[in-house]
């Protein structure tokens, strides 16, 4: 039992260490994103909501990132890589000369130095101990139990909330037919693929959207009694926004995250930001649909009067629950804003996520500040048969081949015999079997400097390149020795095999003839780091000669860089033959990484002689042709590379840009991109702007998408200036002319846009509507449409209503379909056949 508790305490200490060491980084990421969003006021709430979710994911993964990215070297990626694991600046130090072995001289190690200076350097370098060690005792496991208890309570509340929500849904009743019609219209406006059901309940005070696989929108009875129809439309749009955005699922994930990370202060703060932005994003959705922020703010204020409290927190999203911040949302709506777009901006989300990843990449490479030490003392058994002097001598000899960091650590501890597992070599190799090929092995070469920075190269090496090695060596534990042979030299590997894995120190020995040939070509003698890279990158004399012949460089480091980036001598020659003789090896490597061909480089340089390599890379990545760049620069020389990339990505031609810029010089690149995305031509923009100069880009896009001509917009606005863009789009989609709308509005000012659209769809004209209403003012829109569909004229309806039979609208429609007149029915009355139903009269008529 004690062993289990100790293991649990150790596990808790590891997790707590990871959280504490990344807490500052999580706080930095959250602060940077918060500041970035504050400095970008045009970013909408949907984008901020997505960004904060990305921040939450990073905050949660940060503790794992300090553990998982440091696996044992035998398992690296099979692709050949060579990277600096720690990227902090290295202190300057003199370059040690490379010892080249002659014909009979012994192999010299890559880094050799006298033993005593190394030992004295490690011993004479006092440093502040990082990380700071604490002796926590058993309280990490107690903290774990506390966290588990609190999380279980919160998870229980989630389950209880879910069960209550299910019961609430089952007890709710369907909405009235008229309300369902209005709801379906709003559903079509929201353009969501999800089709929720509309319910009414007397158990809720605030409207809410819920249900994961089968969503519903639940309205309180109190709300229906207190709110007007335009305000009800806003309420429905807000809840449908939750459904369309799938906020029911994100709300569930947020509640689960709150339970799991209840003790993480940064995660808890980020979750509150997510809740805030979710509601504001739905508010933006409503304003984008209705076009009136002030009207919607007034609706929220009405809701605030009787929805300021909630009886219970549900697994649902609504307009006025406790976390919806109604007061703040109303204040935001009343601020001067020009954009209420409902969708998230992928470029802005990507920009913020990239910032987070950059901070994360930097932070996880920083050393940990805190660690928990074990309280128990590990006893070391000394071999009494070995004299103390021999043990000390062995330790000094060992320190000459171990890394400086390990020597400094071992010099501060009691003398003991170190095992192979305890050693940290300056130059270390590790080898395992290849996962899929029996003719290869996976070889990792690690080089460490004096400050503990690592550089690792991992390759899938053919067995033919390893002299003195076979796969059978890995079948038995024991010593191993082999050479990794390349054209430039050899890597001498010596170590041990343990359970199928081999490791140990290595020495780089360059081929003397290779070094001599390099120097004869004009290259300098390679130093230590270059010797390591020459062998691992497999630089050949033929490649060195072909690069030298291009006239580009005589630097060994440039040669290695070109080889690592896959730059062929033909590519270098082609670039220089195009006249670019001033480019460095780094420039050419950069161009090759982006796939820039020499002919493109020549053409784009002719179009823009002052373009930098990074700018050329960007243009090529976006597919910008030299002619396009030249034409766009001739049209507007002030455009940046990023702006030209954006215009090209959106298909904006130079003439189109020129047309928009000449019409409205204040148009931004993003606005021109938006107009082009919707197919708006400069001519249409000029025409519609001449009608209404206050139209926004989003409104113009909407009008064009619906095919609204400037003349139609002008006539409709002249008829009813209060109409929104959405309403005008709606009228045009249903073929309602300005005169028709005016006729309906004069006859019945209470008619909504949806009702007029409905009447027009059934061919109802204002005169017909007026005549029918004069006969019976209580008729609904659906009944009037039915009469029009069956050819019932106002006079016919009047005659039928004058009969004492009390026929319904459906009865009258059926009688009209069979050609039965009021006179025919009066004749039946005269014959004594009174109180007949419409169906009976039809049968009599058909029988005649």
Can you characterise this structure?
It is a single chain. The protein contains 38 helices and 15 strands. It is of the alpha+beta class and 848 residues long. The strands form three sheets. The protein has an eight-stranded antiparallel β-sheet with strand order 1-11-10-9-15-14-13-12. A five-stranded mixed β-sheet has the order 3-4-6-5-7, with helices on both faces. Helix 1 crosses helix 12, helix 2 packs antiparallel against helix 9 and helix 10 packs antiparallel against helix 11. The protein starts with a helix and ends with a helix.
Put the structure in a nutshell.
The protein is of the alpha+beta class. It contains 38 helices and 15 strands. It starts with a helix and ends with a helix.
Overall pLDDT score: 79
**How many strands, which pairing sense, and closed or not: the largest β-sheet?**
8 strands, antiparallel
Determine the structural class based on helices, strands and strand pairing.
Answer: alpha+beta
Count the helices. How many?
38
- DSSP strand tally: 15
Spatial strand arrangement across the major sheet: 1-11-10-9-15-14-13-12
Topology (elements, then pairings):
Elements: H1 2-38, H2 45-65, E1 81-84, H3 115-123, E2 132-134, H4 139-171, E3 173-174, H5 177-190, E4 197-201, E5 208-210, E6 216-220, H6 221-226, H7 229-244, H8 247-260, H9 265-290, H10 293-306, E7 317-318, H11 326-334, H12 346-363, E8 370-372, H13 388-399, H14 404-411, E9 427-433, E10 440-448, E11 454-462, E12 466-467, E13 478-485, E14 489-498, E15 501-510, H15 512-521, H16 528-536, H17 541-549, H18 556-564, H19 569-577, H20 585-593, H21 598-607, H22 613-621, H23 626-635, H24 641-649, H25 654-663, H26 669-677, H27 682-691, H28 697-705, H29 710-719, H30 725-733, H31 738-747, H32 753-761, H33 766-775, H34 781-789, H35 794-802, H36 809-817, H37 822-830, H38 838-847
Parallel strand pairs: 2-8, 4-6
Antiparallel strand pairs: 1-11, 3-4, 5-6, 5-7, 9-10, 9-15, 10-11, 12-13, 13-14, 14-15
Helix pairs in contact: 1-2, 1-4, 1-12, 2-9, 2-12, 3-14, 4-8, 5-7, 7-9, 8-9, 10-11, 15-17, 18-20, 21-23, 23-25, 25-27, 27-29, 29-31, 31-33, 33-35, 36-38
């Amino acid at each position: 039992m004690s062993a289990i508790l100790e293991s649990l305490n150790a596990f808790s200490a590891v997790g707590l260490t990871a959280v504490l060491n990344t807490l500052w980084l999580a706080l930095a990421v959250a602060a940077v994103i918060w500041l970035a969003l504050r400095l970008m006021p045009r970013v909408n709430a949907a984008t901020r909501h997505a960004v904060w979710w990305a921040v939450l994911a990073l905050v949660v993964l940060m503790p794992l990132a300090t553990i998982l990215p440091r696996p044992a070297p035998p398992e690296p990626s099979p692709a050949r890589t060579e990277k600096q694991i720690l990227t902090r600046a290295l202190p300057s130090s003199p370059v040690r000369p490379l010892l080249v072995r002659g014909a009979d001289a012994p192999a010299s190690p890559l880094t050799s130095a006298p033993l005593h200076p190394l030992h004295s350097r490690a011993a004479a370098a006092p440093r502040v101990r990082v990380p700071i060690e604490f002796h926590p005792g058993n309280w990490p496991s107690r903290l774990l139990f506390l966290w588990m208890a609190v999380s279980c309570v919160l998870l229980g509340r989630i389950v209880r909330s879910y069960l209550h929500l299910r019961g609430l849904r089952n007890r709710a009743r369907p909405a009235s037919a008229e309300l369902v019609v209005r709801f379906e219209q709003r559903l079509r406006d929201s353009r969501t693929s999800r089709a929720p059901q509309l319910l009414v309940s007397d158990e809720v005070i605030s409207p809410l959207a819920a249900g994961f696989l089968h969503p519903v929108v639940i309205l309180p009875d109190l709300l229906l009694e207190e709110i007007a129809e335009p305000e009800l439309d806003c309420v429905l749009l807000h809840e449908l926004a939750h459904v369309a955005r799938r906020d029911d699922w994100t709300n569930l994930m947020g509640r689960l995250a709150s339970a799991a990370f209840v003790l993480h202060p940064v995660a808890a703060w980020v979750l509150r930001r997510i809740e805030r932005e979710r509601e504001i994003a739905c508010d933006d959705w409503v304003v984008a649909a209705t076009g009136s922020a002030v009207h919607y703010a007034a609706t929220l204020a009405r809701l605030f009067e009787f929805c300021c409290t909630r009886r219970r927190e549900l697994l649902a999203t609504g307009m006025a629950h406790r976390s919806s911040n109604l007061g703040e949302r109303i204040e935001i709506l009343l601020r001067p804003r020009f954009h209420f777009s409902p969708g998230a901006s992928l470029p802005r989300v990507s920009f913020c996520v990239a910032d987070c990843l950059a901070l994360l990449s930097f932070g996880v490479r920083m050393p940990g500040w805190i660690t928990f030490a074990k309280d128990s003392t590990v006893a070391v058994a000394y071999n009494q048969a070995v004299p103390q002097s021999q043990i000390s001598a062995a330790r000094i000899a060992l320190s000459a081949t171990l890394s400086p960091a390990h020597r400094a650590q071992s010099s501060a501890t009691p003398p003991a015999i170190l095992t192979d597992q305890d050693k940290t070599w300056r130059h270390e190799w590790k080898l395992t079997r290849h996962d899929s090929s029996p003719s290869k092995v996976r070889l990792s070469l690690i080089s460490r400097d004096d400050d503990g920075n690592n550089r690792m190269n991992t390759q899938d090496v053919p067995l033919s390149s390893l002299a003195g090695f076979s796969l059978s060596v890995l079948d038995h534990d024991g010593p191993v020795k082999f050479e990794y042979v390349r054209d430039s030299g050899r890597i001498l590997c010596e170590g041990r095999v343990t359970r199928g894995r081999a490791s140990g120190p290595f020495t780089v020995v360059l081929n003397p003839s290779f070094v001599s040939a390099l120097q004869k070509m004009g290259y300098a003698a390679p130093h230590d780091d270059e010797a390591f890279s020459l062998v691992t990158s497999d630089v050949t004399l033929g490649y060195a000669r072909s690069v030298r012949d291009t006239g580009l460089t005589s630097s060994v480091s440039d040669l290695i860089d070109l080889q690592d980036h896959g730059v062929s001598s033909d590519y270098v020659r082609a670039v220089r033959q195009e006249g670019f003789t001033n480019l460095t090896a780094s420039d050419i490597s950069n161009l090759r990484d982006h796939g820039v061909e020499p002919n493109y480089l020549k053409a784009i340089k002719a179009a823009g002689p002052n373009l930098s390599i990074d700018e050329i890379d960007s243009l090529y990545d976006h597919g910008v042709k030299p002619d396009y760049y030249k034409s766009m620069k001739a049209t507007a020389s002030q455009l940046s590379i990023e702006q030209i990339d954006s215009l090209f990505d959106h298909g904006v031609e130079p003439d189109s840009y020129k047309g928009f810029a000449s019409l409205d010089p204040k148009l931004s690149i993003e606005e021109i991109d938006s107009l082009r995305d919707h197919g708006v031509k400069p001519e249409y923009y000029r025409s519609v702007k001449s009608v209404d100069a206050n139209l926004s880009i989003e409104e113009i896009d909407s009008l064009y998408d619906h095919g609204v001509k400037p003349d139609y917009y002008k006539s409709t606005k002249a008829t009813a200036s209060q109409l929104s863009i959405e309403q005008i789009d709606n009228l045009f989609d249903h073929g309602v002319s300005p005169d028709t709308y005016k006729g309906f509005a004069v006859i019945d000012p209470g008619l909504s846009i949806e009702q007029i659209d409905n009447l027009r769809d059934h061919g109802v004209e204002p005169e017909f509507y007026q005549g029918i209403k004069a006969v019976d003012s209580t008729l609904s829109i659906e009944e009037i449409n039915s009469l029009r569909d069956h050819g019932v004229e106002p006079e016919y309806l009047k005659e039928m209503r004058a009969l004492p039979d009390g026929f319904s609208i459906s009865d009258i429609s059926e009688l009209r379909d069979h050609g039965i007149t009021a006179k025919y029915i009066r004749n039946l009355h005269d014959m004594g056949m009174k109180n007949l139903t419409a169906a009976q009269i039809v049968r009599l008529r058909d029988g005649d």
